[in-house]
Amino acid sequence: MKKTLSLFVLVSLLCMTSYAQDKMMSKEMMSQQVRVPVDETVVTNHTTTIKGKTIPYSATAGFQPVWDDEGNPVASLLYTYYKRSDIKNDENRPLVISFNGGPGSASVWMHIAYTGPRILKIDDEGFPVQPYGIKSNPNSILDVADIVFVNPVNTGYSRMLPGKDGKMPDKKMFFGVNADIKYLADWVNTFVTRVNRWRSPKYLIGESYGTTRVSGLAAALQNRKWMYINGVILVSPTEIGFEFDGPVEVANRLPYFTAAAWYHKALPPALQSKDLTEVLAESEAYAVNELLPVMVNTGFIDPARKDAVIKKMAYYSGLSERTIRQHNLEVPKAYFWKDLLRDRDGLTIGRLDSRYKGLDVKEAGDRPDYNSELTAWLHAFTPAINYYYQQELDLKTDLSYNMFGPVRPWDRTNNNTGASLREAMGVNKNLHVMIQSGYFDGATTYFNAKYVMWQLNASGKLSDRLSFKGYRSGHMMYLRNEDLIQANEDIRDFIQKSSANISQGARY
């Protein structure tokens, strides 16, 4: 058994959430015919095989409330807690608390495709196969850590709850960078207490906007709940409050362009014949050392130098010199997705995973008609998670599972999550951070992820507690089987490294 929305996981799908869906959900929450469980769980027992060893475990699927300041339940959050059941003493057993992004995305993605004991049926490159369903995950980290997958308000089966007067709580309690962190810190504190895991080493993992969430949570749990975290894993991170745009943002695009073009064999032979990481090292060096200074004053550089830069950008991107010149060296990523293969096979490439191709109505245009990778993912994930909860975890409900729930408007002001995480690392000697990114992710690019890591280490004194792992896939790098194996192994290594010396005390 950020300023730009493009930096947030699957946010394009949030735009696809129709007005009708929003109304339907509002009706559903208010209807007495569809009951929202407030504080209920169901426990099932299972076994799986991980790295060749049989692992027994319990799965607790259910709901835990969020309370207001007066102690009234204002929301009910769906969670799924996997606990290895052959461990008698869990005081040294790590607990991993997992969030996805959006904001507005359910925890479905990492739950049934990455670290959990059951994953959806897809092929080795991450494409859907039918019949849809679930299979065992021989790479799950459940052998070394227990895991809880949390769905924030309006995602999955999680919902706001009406008060005694029948009115819904103010959305501002939940839908914003800091509101999200505040109520989730309270929720995590209650959960850890209920399952008696205060002694355990604790880890937070978040994907895309979930990295903003867990960066802020690490600091909030430490500063407000006195719950000290051992590790934070940032999967395909956003800018986590480190604002970077203008010349920096433009220059940072180039290595991603290089990666996607390399995958589609659109680079010159001199580059195409090299391994991806070797090519990316060249592109990164050029972006930082040559392109960035030019982008600061593009309109005033010597024409000959500008020509040389355009030629080099074309060399590393697979785009034509004409295209780069027409865009004043600032080619939007959306245009890149539309244009890279336009003159070759007339197809587009994916945003969140540029390995995927799409077919538009017209070859002309400056952006793809749709995100080709999302349609493939939703084919597989939606039926799998609905089947899994109802049939395998025995969680029966008439609520609709919100892959992407209505959380707009989302208050993005005062996002200091990265700075807060950096400060938390300074205070807590035991706190380590690992970043995992797919080279072919065009939304939260791997080179922006490296840039975020550099900002976390502004003092240069945290290098031994920061690490970066790159994978030959996209935003959800774990969908590719080879990367699923490696990425889970990287988490195991991260947990082992970050917990190796904790008995010696958290001191400098």
TrEMBL record:
The keyword Ligase does not apply. PANTHER family: RETINOID-INDUCIBLE SERINE CARBOXYPEPTIDASE, SERINE PROTEASE FAMILY S10 SERINE CARBOXYPEPTIDASE. Keywords: Carboxypeptidase, Glycoprotein, Hydrolase, Protease, Signal. Residues 1-20 form the signal peptide. One of its GO terms (biological process) is proteolysis. This is Carboxypeptidase C (Cathepsin A). The lineage of its organism: Bacteria, Pseudomonadati, Bacteroidota, Flavobacteriia, Flavobacteriales. The keyword NAD does not apply. It comes from Dokdonia pacifica. One of its GO terms (molecular function) is serine-type carboxypeptidase activity. It holds the Pfam family Peptidase_S10.
